[in-house]
Amino acid sequence: DIVMTQFPDSLAVSLGERATINCKSSQSLYYRSNNRTYLAWYQQRPGQPPKLLVYWASTRESGVPDRFSASGSGTHFTLTISGLQAEDVAVYYCQQYYSTPQTFGQGTRVEIK
Amino acid sequence: EVQLVESGGGVVQPAGSLRLSCAASGFIFGDHWMSWARHAPGRGLEWVANIKEDATEKNYVDSVKGRFTISRDNARNLLSLQMSALRAEDTAVYYCVRVVGSGWFGYWGQGTPVIVSS
């Protein structure tokens, strides 16, 4: 199984500041035959189901604010929230869908400082 | 609008059984892989099982193999998860998920809680 590791486990950021979440996979998520990277990011607000933010490592889902951006390749990935808003308080998860079982990182909790 | 509505959760004793259902609407159910995922208290998200559009392929996380069975009824737009030999570690909120594209989880239901306790 591919192991996904996120860091930090939690971070506190002032409103309007930048939050950066890292995710590392135990093997490459890049599939050479189609030049795609099989990584997604999700946001889970308190009491809510997860919500898709990003797929293919950097493609923002329709309707997701552009303050959310994602990058990375191979085994190292980053989700950045530029200009944190109060509604961004949540736990963020990365997920690989390169192989079964699809696996998630342990989550990174983002709070307001 | 895509809607996924889970039902069937509750409190069950260890070694007991429970059947979860998910009513899907707002899309052509039979055209999509579907999954179940769960979120245990104090733990992260975990994929549990998935099923191909025509139910010819099913996959499970190792911890539930032989105990859980995923199924679907495309005529009724219904996804199910039959859970047996339940353990305390199966306690979680269970989500019905519509798989999108090459495997990301595009749509999630609100979830149904399962508590395994004596």
**Shape field of chain B:** globular
Mean pLDDT of chain A: 96
Overall form of chain A: globular
Q: What's the mean pLDDT score of chain B?
A: 96
The number of helical segments of chain B is: 0
Number of E strands of chain B: 11
Instruction: Provide the helix percentage of chain A.
Output: under 10%
Summarize the amount of helix of chain B as a percent range: under 10%
Helix-strand category of chain B: mainly beta
What can be said about the biggest beta sheet of chain B? 7 strands, mixed
Helix/strand-derived class of chain A? mainly beta
Provide the low-confidence segments of chain B as ranges: none
Number of helices of chain A: 0
Total number of beta strands of chain A:
13
Largest sheet of chain A: 7 strands, mixed
Q: How are helices and strands ordered from N to C of chain B?
A: EEEEEEEEEEE
What is the first-to-last residue Cα distance of chain B?
Answer: 40 Å
> Most extensive interface, residues per chain?
A-B, 22 and 22 residues
Strand percentage of chain A, roughly?
over 45%
Using brief descriptors, characterize the structure shown:
heterodimer, A: 113 residues, mainly beta, seven-stranded mixed sheet, four-stranded antiparallel sheet, 13 strands, globular, B: 118 residues, 11 strands
Describe the structure.
The complex is a heterodimer of chains A (113) and B (118). With 113 residues, chain A is mostly beta strands. Chain A is 0% helix and 53% strand. Chain A contains no helices and 13 strands. Chain A has strands at 4-7, 10-13, 18-25, 30-31, 36-37, 39-44, 51-55, 59-60, 68-73, 76-82, 90-96, 103-104, 108-112. Chain A is globular, with a radius of gyration of 13 Å. By secondary structure, chain B is mainly beta. The mean pLDDT of chain B is 96. Helix content of chain B is 0%, strand content 53%. In chain B, the strands form two sheets. In chain B, strands 2, 4, 5, 6, 9, 10 and 11 form a seven-stranded mixed sheet that branches. A four-stranded antiparallel sheet of chain B has the order 1-3-8-7, with no helix packed on it. Chain B is globular. At the A-B interface, strand 6, strand 7 and strand 12 of A face strand 5 and strand 10 of B.
